[in-house]
Automatic annotation (TrEMBL), chain A:
GO biological process: phenylacetate catabolic process
Originating organism: Actinacidiphila oryziradicis
Pfam families: PaaA_PaaC
GO cellular component terms given for this protein: cytosol
SUPFAM superfamilies assigned: Ferritin-like
Protein name: Phenylacetate-CoA oxygenase subunit PaaI
UniProtKB/TrEMBL annotation, chain B:
Chain segments carrying region Disordered: 1-20
Superkingdom field: Bacteria
Lineage, opening ranks: Bacteria, Bacillati, Actinomycetota, Actinomycetes, Kitasatosporales
Annotated PaaD zinc beta ribbon domain residues: 136-184
Entries under PANTHER family matching the protein: 1,2-PHENYLACETYL-COA EPOXIDASE, SUBUNIT D-RELATED (PTHR42831:SF3), FE-S PROTEIN MATURATION AUXILIARY FACTOR YITW (PTHR42831)
Full protein name: Phenylacetate-CoA oxygenase subunit PaaJ
Annotated MIP18 family-like domain residues: 28-82
One Pfam assignment: Zn_ribbon_PaaD
């Protein structure tokens, strides 16, 4: 079928018509390869790599957020973190589908999520670090949602209409994520002496990984992350000030762009092993 | 079995593939998670077209990127149109413009309130653009004029921005003390 808008075919209903939505969804119909979908002048490989990196950030963080289920301080927080993870998972699916279209390989979301090893993932390392305590997870979510929101606001004007649509949609969701994390940062940072200390340690642990968010995009496809730095730093400073916390002067840990080159911490492997185990045990399965 | 003197022609058995009929059928599909709303009430159904060959194309816009109900919505729209005699049905997902709670119809808002879910107020103006605006950093939940759908009191408070589905938030009425849900503004 031909679509009058290129991004319409991105999330085309499965030709099988089944209500699948987990592994084996048939989300992308290979017949709709959409070669014409990438506008002339857009570097296809660069677009694919860029979508893959943003998709990996979302998938890996979604997995970490899901791990809070049955462990969060209150039921409401568990529901909130799972909801945020679900939003990110939805963004990852769209970005993976776009990556498979742009690079011409026809790979699906499942190929990207379940059949790549840690060295092939391009997420920032901050997303893959273990959850730590609630304060650490809060500080990580604050940084990543503030950054991703600033990035998506700019990508909504992207030369690629699919990426622009995915980003435009994600902006509304990320605004909620950032607000959630900001509120908890203030509540803990400006709380008791004890909660302040825990939140301060969390921020200290997160900050060495912030620099990686602003690593230059080698493909030069998307928004230059350096342009985003000012907006993100302003946002984070505003929240930390309200939380009576100082912005740490942290040196980047392990290089400034490790994750984007596939150099990850030792924590990504076990995360992926859990995420991918069912799909790899039963390749091609559908339900 | 009733025997007829002549076999019915296809035109007599199948309904005319009129756009109005296709639209009527698709619009009546209930939302899988909020069955008091139809897809038209929710503003998720963005269009139904029938081409010269009788092929129906229904366009849906997801409420949230990760909305797991999208697959069910697609399947149900396709199934109902197929059952109604439309031989070829296509569902396409429209991501742009993104869905907003402002698209919920007045009928949909009434139905939500009748079922104990406070309908959304106007969505915040936070369109895409490089100006993120101030970060809400209040320690306590924002007190907004959300009316309790049970007793009508405006003395309510938010207990969580996130609830059983991505599109709802948890609130509590301070007058009748009952918890209730708010359809989130996005």
């Amino acid at each position: 079928m031909s679509n009058d808008h290129v991004y319409l075919s991105l999330a085309e209903a499965s030709s099988e018509g089944d209500a699948h939505w987990a592994f084996g969804t048939g989300f992308q119909d290979p017949l709709h390869g959409v070669d014409t979908a990438v506008p002339a002048g857009v570097d296809r490989a660069g677009l694919a790599a860029y979508c893959l990196a943003l998709g990996d950030d979302a998938l890996v963080l979604a997995q970490r957020l899901a791990q809070w289920c049955t462990h969060a301080p209150e039921l409401e927080e568990e529901v909130a973190l799972a909801n945020i993870g679900l939003d990110l998972l939805g963004q990852a699916r769209l970005l993976y589908s776009r990556a498979g279209q742009a690079d011409g390989s026809g790979r699906t979301e499942d190929d990207f999520a379940y059949f790549r090893d840690a060295g092939d993932f391009r997420n920032v390392r901050l997303a893959e670090l273990p959850n730590g305590d609630f304060a650490f997870s809060t500080a990580r979510l604050l940084v990543l949602s503030a950054w991703r929101l600033a990035l998506f606001q700019r990508l909504a004007g992207s030369a690629d209409p699919v990426l622009a649509a995915v980003a435009g949609k994600g902006v509304k969701e990320l605004a909620y994520h950032r607000e959630y994390a900001a509120r908890w940062t203030v509540r803990l940072g400006d709380g008791t002496e004890y909660s302040h200390g825990r939140m301060r340690r969390a921020v200290d642990e997160v900050w060495p990984y912030v620099e990686e968010l602003f690593a230059p995009d080698e493909g030069g496809f998307g928004v230059d992350p350096v342009d985003v730095r000012g907006a993100v730093e302003e946002t984070l400073a505003q929240v930390l000030t309200a939380a009576t916390l100082a912005t740490p002067a942290a040196l980047p840990r392990g290089g400034a762009d490790g994750g984007r080159r596939g150099a990850h911490t030792e924590h990504l492997g076990p995360l992926l092993a859990e995420l991918q185990s069912v799909a790899r045990a039963h390749p091609g399965a559908a339900w | 079995m009733v025997t007829t003197e002549r076999s019915l022609s296809a035109a007599e058995v199948l309904p005319q593939p009129s756009p109005a009929r296709a639209r009527q059928i698709a619009a009546a599909v209930p939302d899988p998670e909020l069955p008091m709303l139809t897809l038209a009430d929710l503003g998720v159904l963005r269009g139904v077209e029938v081409d010269e060959d009788g092929v129906v194309t229904a366009s849906l816009t997801p409420t949230y990127s990760g909305c797991p109900a999208m697959a069910e919505m697609r399947a149900e729209v396709a199934a109902r149109l197929t059952r109604a005699g439309f031989r070829e049905v296509r569902i396409r997902t429209v991501l742009d413009p993104p869905w907003t709670s402002d698209w919920i119809t007045p009928r949909g808002r009434s139905a939500l309130a009748e079922h104990g879910i406070a309908p959304p107020a106007a969505a915040p103006a936070q369109g895409p653009g490089p100006s993120p605006g101030p970060v809400p950093v209040e320690l306590f939940p924002t007190r907004r004029a959300v009316r309790c759908p049970r007793c009508g009191s405006a003395d309510t408070e938010e207990t969580s921005r996130f609830a059983a589905t991505a599109c709802r938030a948890l609130h509590r009425c301070r007058s009748c003390l009952e918890p209730f849900e708010l359809f989130k503004e996005i």
